[in-house]
């Protein structure tokens, strides 16, 4: 259906739009399921609203969090979010997607401890001792998107004509390099535990290295390419080691369930060469991840540079890119349905759902209905957390949200990121990010 911008003045209008599009949008009046606690590992998460990992690209040069990262996580905590997933944090200098991406190592471990302490104390100050948010650090290697000094390293696990413009310019990760990197992942898991996080999230989505490996059908003569067993080896071994080395910490995975890239270059797609959804391999993988000790899964889809509408339904595309040929509500429902199918297949493992920011101040009504029907255990928000970090607090205190504080899905946060600048909400957090957006240099 044709793309349209958000223009609904009531949940009824939103619901009618969904019916017109032939979508079965879950929606209910009561938002209480969002405010109920949920157990993950040995901890009780105070409510079901989660901040998705969102890069702020504002680290110090050694990769430690800067002033605005402390501000960002402090705001999420005092805003009442039950779970806070800290942004993609590189495990090696070469694996940074931007010179401002967080980087975790032995030298800057103390700064991460301070960030954890600060986040917990901001939550305590606002809500008292009984509200302790569940803190997750996402660790990553940016793979083909690594730009540690601002320039692409052009290093990939396998050539992908959908993503790589010039094959001649590419370098390839060798198996020996991947073996070594696996050890670095395990060290990063231990550092994550030492920093005081409740969980480590092994990022396997959006085209970054561990996700790329999942779709590396064409990687030849390698124990990390070709068969399902080989393509999933790296992720499974890291998860297994994470759980073994830090059993008291939850091991989580943020997983692309499908990426919209046809076989033999995509994951979660059928082998007939169409770019549609096929969850058979993701289900097989999730089963094995759980067996290896993964006890929290965040489901996402798409690759930002290739299929942004699969990653984050929007009103306005990133400047210079085209408007997709689908209604954003179709994008929202794709993610809601995929997470639901997986949550029903794996009812014992909490799944964090994605794709809710486009719904603005109506996300609680859809999120609550999703929780109510067991189609996810937590409702995650990405761009809306930048825009409206205290939406859970407003829900607790006012029972509803304010449209004027909500994300407008204008894609300007992504534009900031692509400009290599500090990233946040240009529309709602203007003092810092509108200035950053307008900066001439
Ligand atoms: C500026 C920006 C930064 C992001 N950073 C990350 C990240 O660090 N890790 C990750 O897994 N996803 C990242 N994402 C994706 C979001 O977590 C989320 O999946 C996406 O925005 C869709 O959710 P939403 O509709 O609530 O925004 C980022 C997205 C944006 C726009």
Could you characterize the architecture of this molecule?
With about 450 residues, this protein is of the alpha/beta class. The protein has a single domain (about 10-440), classed as Aldolase class I (TIM Barrel, Alpha-Beta Barrel), CATH 3.20.20.70. About 35% of the residues lie in helices and about 10% in strands. It is built from 14 helices and 12 strands. The strands form 3 sheets. Strands 3-4-5-8-9-10-11-12 form an 8-stranded parallel barrel, surrounded by 6 helices. It has a two-stranded antiparallel ribbon with strand order 1-2. It is globular, with a radius of gyration of 20 Å. Bound molecules: flavin mononucleotide. Flavin mononucleotide binds near residues 203, 356, 358 and 384.
Count of runs of 4 or more consecutive helical residues:
14
Mean pLDDT: 97
Overall helicity: 25-40%
Estimated radius of gyration: 20 Å
Name given to the CATH architecture = Alpha-Beta Barrel
Largest β-sheet summary: 8 strands, parallel, barrel
Q: Taking strands numbered 1, 2, ... along the chain, how are they ordered across the largest sheet?
A: 3-4-5-8-9-10-11-12
- Principal-axis shape equals globular
Secondary-structure-derived class: alpha/beta
Bound molecules: flavin mononucleotide
Distance between the termini: 40 Å
Number of strands: 12
Order of helices and strands: HEEEHEHEEEHEHHEHEHHEHEHHHH
Q: Could you tell me the strand content as a percent range?
A: 5-15%
CATH superfamily: Aldolase class I
Count of the separate structural domains: 1
């Amino acid at each position: 259906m044709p793309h349209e911008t958000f223009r609904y003045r009531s949940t009824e209008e939103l619901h009618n739009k969904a019916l017109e599009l032939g979508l079965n949008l879950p929606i209910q009046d009561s938002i209480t399921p969002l405010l109920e606690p949920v157990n993950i590992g040995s901890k009780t998460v105070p409510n079901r609203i989660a901040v998705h990992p969102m890069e702020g690209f504002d680290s110090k040069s050694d990769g430690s969090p800067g002033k605005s990262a402390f501000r960002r996580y402090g705001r999420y905590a005092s805003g009442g979010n039950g779970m806070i997933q800290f942004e993609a944090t590189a495990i090696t200098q070469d694996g940074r997607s931007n010179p401002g991406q967080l980087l975790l190592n032995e030298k800057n471990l103390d700064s991460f401890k301070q960030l954890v302490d600060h986040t917990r104390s901001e939550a305590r100050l606002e809500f008292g001792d009984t509200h302790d948010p569940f803190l997750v650090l996402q660790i990553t290697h940016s793979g083909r998107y690594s730009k540690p000094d601002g320039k692409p390293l052009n290093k990939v696990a396998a050539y992908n004509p959908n993503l790589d413009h010039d094959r001649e310019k590419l370098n390839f990760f060798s198996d020996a390099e991947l073996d070594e990197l696996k050890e670095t992942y395990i060290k990063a898991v231990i550092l994550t535990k030492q920093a005081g996080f409740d969980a480590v999230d092994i990022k396997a989505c959006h085209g970054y290295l561990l996700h790329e490996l999942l779709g590396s059908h064409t990687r030849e003569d390698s124990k990390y390419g070709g068969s399902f067993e080989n393509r999933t080896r790296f992720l499974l071994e890291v998860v297994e080691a994470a759980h073994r080395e830090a059993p008291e910490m939850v091991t989580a995975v943020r997983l692309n369930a499908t990426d919209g890239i046809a076989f033999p270059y995509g994951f979660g797609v059928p082998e007939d060469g169409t770019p549609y959804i096929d969850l058979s391999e993701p289900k097989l993988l999730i089963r094995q991840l759980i067996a290896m000790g993964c006890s929290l899964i965040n489901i996402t889809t798409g690759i930002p540079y290739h299929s942004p509408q699969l990653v984050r339904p929007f009103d306005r595309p990133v400047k210079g890119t085209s408007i997709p040929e689908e209604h954003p509500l179709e994008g929202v429902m794709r993610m809601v349905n995929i997470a639901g199918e997986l949550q029903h297949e794996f009812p014992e493992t909490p799944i964090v759902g994605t794709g809710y920011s486009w719904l603005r101040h109506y996300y609680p009504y859809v999120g609550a209905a999703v929780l109510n029907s067991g189609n996810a255990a937590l409702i995650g928000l990405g761009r809306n957390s930048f825009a409206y970090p205290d939406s859970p607090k407003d829900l607790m205190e006012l029972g509803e949200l304010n449209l004027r504080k909500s994300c407008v899905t204008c894609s300007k946060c992504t534009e900031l990121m692509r400009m290599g600048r500090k990233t946040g909400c240009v529309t709602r957090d203007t003092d810092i990010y509108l200035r950053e957006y307008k900066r001439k240099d």
